[in-house]
Amino acid sequence: MRIRPYSSLVRPFSRTFSIMSSAAAASNSSPNDFTQPLNKTAHAFDKNDFDAILSRRFFFIPSFEIYGGVAGLYDYGPPGSALQANILDVWRKHYIIEEDMLELDTTIMTLSDVLKTSGHVDKFADWMVKDSKTGEIFRADHLVEAVIEARLKGDKEARGVTEQPAEEEGDKKKKKKKVKHVAIKLEDSVVEEYESLLAQIDNYTGPELGELMKKHKIVNPETGNDMTEPVEFNLMFESNIGPTGQVKGYLRPETAQGHFVNFARLLEFNNGRVPFASAQIGKSFRNEIAPRQGLLRVREFTMAEIEHYVDPTDKRHARFNEVKSVKLALLPKDVQQEGKTDLTSMTVGDAVGQKIIDNETLGYFLARTQLFLEKIGIDPTRLRCRQHMANEMAHYAADCWDFEIQSSFGWIECVGCADRSAYDLTVHSKKTKQPLRVQQSLPEPRVVDKLECVFEAKAFGLQFRKDAGMLKEHLSTMEKEQLQVVKDDLEKNGSAKVQGPDGKTYEVTSDLLSINPITVTEHIREFIPNVIEPSFGIGRILYSLLEHSFWAREQDKARGVLSLPSVVAPIKCLIVCLSQDPQLRVLIHDISRKLRRIGVSSRVDDSSASIGKKYARNDELGTPFGCTVDFASLKNGTITLRERDSTAQLIGPIDTVISVVDQLVKGTIDWQGATEQLDTYSGVQDVD
Amino acid sequence: MRIRPYSSLVRPFSRTFSIMSSAAAASNSSPNDFTQPLNKTAHAFDKNDFDAILSRRFFFIPSFEIYGGVAGLYDYGPPGSALQANILDVWRKHYIIEEDMLELDTTIMTLSDVLKTSGHVDKFADWMVKDSKTGEIFRADHLVEAVIEARLKGDKEARGVTEQPAEEEGDKKKKKKKVKHVAIKLEDSVVEEYESLLAQIDNYTGPELGELMKKHKIVNPETGNDMTEPVEFNLMFESNIGPTGQVKGYLRPETAQGHFVNFARLLEFNNGRVPFASAQIGKSFRNEIAPRQGLLRVREFTMAEIEHYVDPTDKRHARFNEVKSVKLALLPKDVQQEGKTDLTSMTVGDAVGQKIIDNETLGYFLARTQLFLEKIGIDPTRLRCRQHMANEMAHYAADCWDFEIQSSFGWIECVGCADRSAYDLTVHSKKTKQPLRVQQSLPEPRVVDKLECVFEAKAFGLQFRKDAGMLKEHLSTMEKEQLQVVKDDLEKNGSAKVQGPDGKTYEVTSDLLSINPITVTEHIREFIPNVIEPSFGIGRILYSLLEHSFWAREQDKARGVLSLPSVVAPIKCLIVCLSQDPQLRVLIHDISRKLRRIGVSSRVDDSSASIGKKYARNDELGTPFGCTVDFASLKNGTITLRERDSTAQLIGPIDTVISVVDQLVKGTIDWQGATEQLDTYSGVQDVD
């Protein structure tokens, strides 16, 4: 049993919003292949320096900061917004344009009926507990985990065991309510019990968590007060649509349902054919109980979701060949089931060939996603594909893989790729009685053996009254295998028990219904397509990318740099002059205008700060290139061009430099290419 | 008195969400300069044909259509989403990149305190009435208007007056609850009273509307039941943040407050200098009482807002010269006050020079917005700038202009450009005690005469107790002019009445407070900047653009065309072949791949439909170009290129045609330029 079955099973993306899986947790205490240095210098990654830069340079800050802020809500400032817009622009080109996907923009405000059908109204919840006196609220599983972890830590200290740095990192990463540990030695059997408890912390129901809290005397670590019994808290923000109070709405917790309810329209737009994909970028909302991990667990976030509709009997992909040699770092489920976290580097072609990845379409999207994440600058050595274990997936799901990205918070699920089978379209179709199916002409008619229900209409109606119609339809549309069971029962026992779509059980007798084999010639094949869903948490990817891009100059730890690739860098080019001379100021605004005209986002810094200071500020913003104007510019018409990571400088005529910047930003040349068009320059030291 | 003062005064954009101003209404019965034909053919604009295309081609449809839909919520399908994305892309380049604006992405979920300060919690409301028996809900002003209009119509019919087509259009445009009219002649005095009532329908308070309903016996026209007294309904969607129920939030009704609360951070990012602008694109929400006008009045919508911060004493704009010759169709307030709607075509330079437009910065944005709307394809002859009349504006606003676009719904406000003075920053700064000000070093120190408050601290405290601190701060930060009044009163009467920030009046006596003139030398000038706000309703612009782009082929009224400019067209190029031959199919997918690689969004139609049918389908989608492959393509390596509006065709080698399409889409050549690179083709008729 799982605590939040809906979020962790039915909607794979939600998995990306739980901080880490037990498999990922295990990886912290075992060596793995991803022990690459975090930085480009000898300086260790300093989370404080990093956070300070993000705040100082206004990448993102708590929303309504001047009003004291609210947990789990963040505003993106100019560099954060531009970085996000650029990531989304790459995403749109990489998926929507390149793959001819059908883009949608559906509403955030969602009719409650839709989310009732999808299961969110009933199951999209976490368990919370309150301090019985102060009323302070905790997520039940987080509290149990934090207290037990602190006790184990205390035990280790009492035993004189030195902590592994990896475990330290595991702790830091959680950033849950910090619980202080006391050095108290525990019984060996208790240690064992605690460790087993932690390993399955995601699997307890609310009542089970309540039992654990009683058994292990878990109280509020700060006040010492008892906690209340766990109660379920639905994570959707609720509101009323219109003034009557009778139409309930929720802010969508994902964009996916907006695709599914429009399936019939999408199919028609695609001339009735599958496969095809719909895609949507937009905000979703989850009213987290107590969010405490920065951009990694937020109440409002941007998602990008693809729903790819395929024939369930043919999950090949027409363009699979183009990606089959892409290498992935795989963590398959059987490896995890052995308690290991060793990664296997393998081409997607081999992985699909060996059935490690279920089918070509899923493999295709995994490969394309690997390419996307590399393109925007995610360090491939800190990226892995973790397969969901059987107990993580919904019963109907064929296969599910998460792209997890390593940051100072550990391995975080940032993209989920799931084969969701026909689940969603089936439930919406049943609820609304709208056909959400594909009809395909068969190349040749085919003869099919079927079972046909023949009802004694009057007697059936008298027996089941208001339920008769529903039950008739249910029986008539049953799968052949199920219907065969009913038929056998009727023939053997004279009656059969049938579970209706309302969940109730009905007893049908052989005087009311007979089931007969018939032969039908079919000209058309009808099926509900399966859905393969790659789902992206943009905020998590953006945050991970910032961590991967951050390092400090060897000569000065305080000089932080964000080595963002130019395709996503918020600003592409800094324009500065060496003095405050009015003639030079005219020139830099002239260069700025020229860059704007060719669509290159630039930033003039004409403040009185020193040139070194200006470069340092823009290194912190991740600006890859810088044009510097000095008196030689007036005399010779030349400017210099600086590259952020190497601080190398080139010099050339203004228009040539502008053209080189354009080529660099478009990616048609790299820095090596730039050196072929411009001369090396060593006139100005890159220091403060 | 106005019904919804906040929305119509404080937030100019809300004006764009009321269907029409009285001035605009007047224009329907008087001739104006914009009587251009709606279409490119002799066929009159047919709203039914138009709506059918938008729905059939999945531009947009009611959200949760298969669940029955909800009024005021719409989903954009693939062409609608792509059109919106393209409009926003042009917007981002035109404003954010070109003007170096600071982009923001702030949360939709907004802390109630923020919207309390801004005035939305108290004032962002409409008046609603209920049928006393059925409970059916109406917006009070809309019901009164609809019933009185129907009576006037009945009167005209009874008098045998033929209706003006223009008035018909005015009626249709409102699309309020349709009220049937009965031919009953009214007293002349009643007609006059009704007409005067309609002219000021926007100006009544709720209680006044209640009085009018009683006086004129306005009941539910369908049931004949009495209506309840009007009650205020706040238009914001409300929700709770977190599980405690104690943190209230609203979905933002505009993006603007997200800019203002971040002003201090933005200013720092801009090195402490003004002018600069912040910009944001995002969803906003208004829980309309009874939305009934398609995309023009919706509960969830995309806005694009700019907040430009300027020195209140210097509203010049550095780039004003670049736009001063842009012509605007102006409807200034004094013309409207005379009851006229004549437009004046004038350059923005002249309008600012003659003080018709208040200042250069406002004029700059009006000109830039005119250019933006023309760039995306809005018909300039159906675009006007209407100035707000004095009674439409907030007391603090300096000037306000709306871009109104004419469609079958009449003149609709789509962009608001307001000078909001220092209002917003002032109220947030007062509430949070955070300085939202600009500090400027003065070139030379200046000596200033000020007034200083000297309190008898102990006596003052005893007198005002808990209010003493608040009152002291209030007096100490008063404007000099106000303080002078207090000083005069104290000296004349020995006491003065002071209104506190809490709205209460306090009596201060001269034994508690003396106010003395002092001389201060200032080195720094401190001010709260003024805000100029261009605010765009993207859905309204998108809808108007679709109407402006729609026409039907002369030879066949059923062949609708959307002449969207290629820069915003959802798909740039159609790729089809003349037969289902497998070799040709390979070729069209090859062309599609080449177009994708250069970033041109294309669509393959390899269905079995006729070539004419395929062209017609894509004309309805607004696809400007089409490449056609036939057997000559295999033999000679040539394909044809079709232009949507003229149906003209050219022919050339595949790669040349692809290059021409690229140039056409980028806008570096027009169709004339294409004819210079390719040969004319007349082999295939453009018919079904």
UniProtKB/TrEMBL annotation, chains A, B:
InterPro entries linked: aa-tRNA-synt_IIb, aa-tRNA-synth_II, aa-tRNA-synth_II/BPL/LPL, Anticodon-bd, Anticodon-bd_dom_sf, Gly-tRNA_synthase/POLG2, GlyRS-like_core, tRNA-synt_gly
UniProt catalytic activity: 2 ATP + H(+) = P(1),P(4)-bis(5'-adenosyl) tetraphosphate + diphosphate
Any GO molecular function: transferase activity
Enzyme Commission number, as recorded: 6.1.1.14
Residue stretches making up the Aminoacyl-transfer RNA synthetases class-II family profile domain: 250-565
Chain segments carrying region Disordered: 155-174
GO biological process: mitochondrial glycyl-tRNA aminoacylation
Record-level GO cellular component terms: mitochondrion
Alphabetized UniProt keyword annotations: Aminoacyl-tRNA synthetase, ATP-binding, Cytoplasm, Ligase, Nucleotide-binding, Protein biosynthesis, Transferase
Entry similarity comment: Belongs to the class-II aminoacyl-tRNA synthetase family.
Subunit composition and interactions: Homodimer.
Primary role: Catalyzes the ATP-dependent ligation of glycine to the 3'-end of its cognate tRNA, via the formation of an aminoacyl-adenylate intermediate (Gly-AMP). Also produces diadenosine tetraphosphate (Ap4A), a universal pleiotropic signaling molecule needed for cell regulation pathways, by direct condensation of 2 ATPs. Thereby, may play a special role in Ap4A homeostasis.
Protein name per UniProt: glycine--tRNA ligase
Species this chain originates from: Kockovaella imperatae
Taxon lineage: Eukaryota, Fungi, Dikarya, Basidiomycota, Agaricomycotina
